[in-house]
Amino acid sequence: QVQLVESGGGLVQPGGSLRLSCAASGIIFSRYAMDWYRQAPGKQRELVAGITTDGITNYADSMKGRFTISRDNAKNTVYLQMNSLKPEDSAVYYCNAKYTLLPWGQGTQVTVSS
Questions:
Q1: What is each CA distance from 18 to 65, 91, 99, 102, 103, in whole angstroms?
Q2: pLDDT, tens digit, for every residue of 79-105?
């Protein structure tokens, strides 16, 4: 059974940092390029960052220089390090495979507020 479990969200002040994790099970994780998405209330889900099986990364323009995506194939986990957080980064964050849509996890809530 394929499962994605996101964690690491929370309440943080503007300028703060969080590290999100997404643990995958039921797949050969190392064979999947992975993406992080986010969805704010009333908005469409948007792509945040991606990482290929070879570790090549890409970012949405507004996240470049602030967010870093990484992966640990031994732990079947993809990470998103988020620095210099802004209130507009508040959203539920999800991960999924880049080219094959897997069942969505529950996401992890990130709230940036003073």
A1: 15, 13, 26, 25, 24
A2: 999 999 999 999 999 999 999 999 999
